[in-house]
Write a structure and sequence with these properties.
The chain is α/β, with parallel strands linked by helices and about 260 residues long. It has 10 helices and 8 strands. Bound molecules: zinc ion. InterPro entries: DNase_TatD-rel_CS (IPR018228), Metal_Hydrolase (IPR032466), TatD-like (IPR001130), TatD/YcfH-like (IPR015991).
C-alpha cells in the first residue's frame, strides 16, 4: 500500500459506485463530474444495472478522464437478462473502459424477479467476470446466506460488497472470501451503528467508499438527490468512525480502488 504523505494537502478521492447513467442524473453528466472535481473526487465508476444503463456507462466512461464503466444487470432487472443479453454483456466487458462486472447479486427485498432467476443471473455474471479476470460489484439485500454461498462456490476472490449494510460478522465472512467492503451514505445514518461497527473490523487494505448516487445521500443531505461529490461526506463520517485523518482514508480508499479495479496502486 502507498505510504500516506502527511505533507500532501489535497488528496484525490474515488467514488467506486455511482449511477450518472440513471435518468435522474444522466441529463447533466458533465456538471456532476465537474462538481465532483471541485471536491477533489477525481475518479468514479459508473455502474450499470440494465441494458440501457450499461450502454450509457460505456458512453460516459469513453468521454471523461478518470471515469470507468462497470457493467451488469442488477437483481431487480434480471427478468431481462436473456441469453442474448448475457452474450452482449460478455462482448461489452471487453471494452478497455470497463473495469468490473456488476452490479449483480441478490435482492430478496424488492423481489421483482424470482429467486431462481436472480441466482442464475448472479452465477452467470460471476462466470463472465472470472473469464474476463474482472472484479465484481455485488449487491446484497436480505439475501446474505445465498449471496455468500454463491460467491464461495464460484471461487471468485476479486470483488466488493457494495453499500455494505450488514453486521460485523457478515463483513468478516465476506472478507474471508477475499472481498472488499464498500461503505456508502448508509454508514452516516444515525441508526446505522451496526454498519459503523462493521467498518471497524474491515482491514484498511479492503475498504472502499461510494455514493450509489442518485440514491442514499449521506448526512447532511440525507433524503436529497445524491451525486458523486457527496462521497466526501461518506469519507468524513467514516474517518471519524475509524479515528483516522480523512486525508489518510481518502488516500487508502483510492489506492484500494486502483488495486481492485485498475490493477495498479
Ligand atoms: Zn447501485
Amino acid at each position: 500500500m502507498a505510504i500516506y504523505n502527511s505533507n500532501k494537502k489535497l488528496v484525490d478521492g474515488y467514488d467506486t459506485h455511482t449511477h450518472l447513467n440513471d435518468d435522474q442524473l444522466f441529463h447533466d453528466v458533465p456538471a456532476y463530474i465537474g462538481r465532483a472535481h471541485e471536491f477533489r473526487i477525481m475518479e468514479m465508476n459508473i455502474v450499470g444495472f440494465d441494458a440501457q444503463s450499461n450502454q450509457r456507462a460505456l458512453q460516459i466512461a469513453e468521454a471523461h478522464e478518470g471515469v470507468y464503466a462497470v457493467l451488469g444487470f442488477q437483481p431487480e432487472d434480471t427478468n431481462d437478462f436473456s441469453d442474448a443479453a448475457a452474450q452482449t454483456l460478455g462482448e461489452q466487458i471487453k471494452n478497455p473502459n470497463v473495469v468490473g462486472v456488476g452490479e449483480t447479486g441478490l435482492d430478496y427485498y424488492w423481489d421483482t424477479a424470482s429467486h431462481d432467476v436472480q441466482k442464475a443471473a448472479f452465477e452467470k455474471h460471476l462466470a463472465l467476470a472470472k473469464a474476463a479476470d474482472l472484479p465484481v460489484i455485488i449487491h446484497n439485500r436480505d439475501a446474505f446466506s445465498d449471496v455468500y454461498d454463491i460467491i464461495k462456490q464460484s471461487g471468485i476472490t476479486k470483488g466488493v460488497m457494495h453499500s455494505f449494510s450488514g453486521t460485523p460478522e457478515q463483513a468478516q465472512k465476506f472478507i474471508d472470501l477475499g472481498m472488499h467492503i464498500s461503505f456508502s451514505g448508509v454508514a452516516t445514518f444515525k441508526k446505522a451503528q451496526e454498519v459503523r461497527d462493521a467498518a471497524k473490523i474491515v482491514p484498511l487494505d479492503r475498504i472502499l467508499v461510494e455514493t450509489d448516487a442518485p440514491y442514499l445521500a449521506p448526512v447532511p443531505y440525507r433524503g436529497k438527490q445524491n451525486e458523486p461529490a457527496f462521497v466526501k461526506f461518506v469519507l468524513d463520517s467514516l474517518a471519524e468512525t475509524l479515528d483516522i485523518p480523512v486525508e489518510k482514508l481518502t488516500d487508502i480508499t483510492r489506492t484500494n480502488g486502483h488495486r481492485l479495479f485498475l490493477n495498479h496502486e
